Amino acid sequence: MTLLYKVYINAAEKKNTINPNIYGHFAEHLGRCIYEGIFVGEDSPIPNTKGMRNDVVAALRQIKIPVLRWPGGCFADEYHWKDGVGPKQNRKKMINTHWGGVVEDNSFGTHEFFELCAQLGCEPYVNGNLGSGTVQEMSEWVEYITFDGLSPMSDWRKENGAQSPWKMQYFGVGNENWGCGGNMRPEYYADEYRRYATYLRNFSGNKLYKIGCGSNGFDYNWTEKVMEIAGRFMDAITLHHYTLPTGVWQNKGDATGFPEEEYYSTMINCLKMEELISNHLQIMNKFDPEHKVGLIVDEWGTWYNVEPGTNPGFLYQQNTIRDAMVAAITLNIFNKYSNRVVMANIAQTVNVLQAVILTEGAKMVLTPTYHVFDMYKVHQDATLVGSYVDSGTVEGHNIPNLSVSASVDKDGALNITAANLSMTSSAPVTCDITGMNPKSITGRILTGKVDAHNTFEAPDTVTITDYNNAKIQDNNLIFEIPPNSVILVTAK
Length: 492
Ligand code: AHR
Description:
This protein has 9 helices and 24 strands. It is an alpha/beta fold and about 500 residues long. The strands form 5 sheets. A 10-stranded mixed sheet has the order 21-20-24-18-17-16-1-19-23-22, covered by helices on one side. The protein has an 8-stranded parallel barrel with strand order 2-5-8-9-10-11-12-13, surrounded by 5 helices. It has a two-stranded antiparallel ribbon with strand order 3-4. Helix 5 packs parallel to helix 6. It is globular, with a radius of gyration of 22 Å.
């Protein structure tokens, strides 16, 4: 049966600016994300600039990466930053106990991270160690990075080659402190947050944006207690939500070759992001009625069984059209709540979980998720406009047929991103536009079989192509989205 899907967009109903940081990324010392994926060292035969892979940096610049979170994740709460500065041959080695028990040689540290951000043209987001580090250590890290005067830390930074301090706004005070960051109770973490945050100073004109550790998905009690006790000392609180097809950690489901029911359960689990954001915001509102505290979803994405034959601690997984759907739906949700969701960071940038890039030696592959970020970059810094979708639910499944978001950019172009969640039915869309009279229309599409993916042998199996079948009719935009596909329509 062919259904007609109606979307109503009011280009004159201007909401907030979409914070580019919603399109942010996360890179942890985990598996082959930092080492091999991003940093190969200056002596590598892989083309690099100061040790950073040129191909990966160029690809991330292309999607306008706005912000990068580092060094973890769970790794953050056992990372001692002083071991990662100074001459490389003297840097202390450690065991990365969370991720495969491998040796971390600390060759990528603070200086390398700020060099990477400079090459990417993105904001740094540093996550401090509250779980196993001291107040003094965290406070001195901020001094080392941002102080522009005579001080022990500033002098040490200069000795290590950086005469000027760096600018750093985003600073996380611990990560998942309800779990790998110390197994704390929310009351205890909230008190610890207050103590650590007190000594994070604003030096030399640098203004820190302090981020408190938020909840694990549906743990609303954590947000309630942390907001009550420490909310007024923070600029933002975080939320983590991963999408597991089966919902079971022992057997999460495979990244490729999955059954139809796991495609739909993945959609259901990723759609829970909206419920989570909405409920956490309501709790935050109780303690922060003026909405001073932002919500940051600094870990999100799919989490599958690792690829067969790879180190289970490295979290390496393939990435298919199903992942592109998860990215499209989630980013549409972030846009919708972009008046309060001030940042989000997909986990993780390269070779780990829902990566946008995979590497093997000198080879690099852009995943379907990468292409969604490429299509959606038009929303960065644009104005969210009102939209309403009347599309019903996918036959036999309690999920909507369509996920849609619309914004107007600074030149007045209307950009609509839409995903068809059905695995079987095409979605013929009529988009009723008020508030503007479109004269021209263009489109781009990402489509393919639901488990289509890119490999090092066939890197362009899934890629963006032009979509030329959109038309304007009586101030309506008419287009059709194939099953499990993502589309960008631009009207001017
Ligand atoms: O992204 C992988 C891990 O997931 C992070 O280290 C941790 O914060 C979360 O549990």
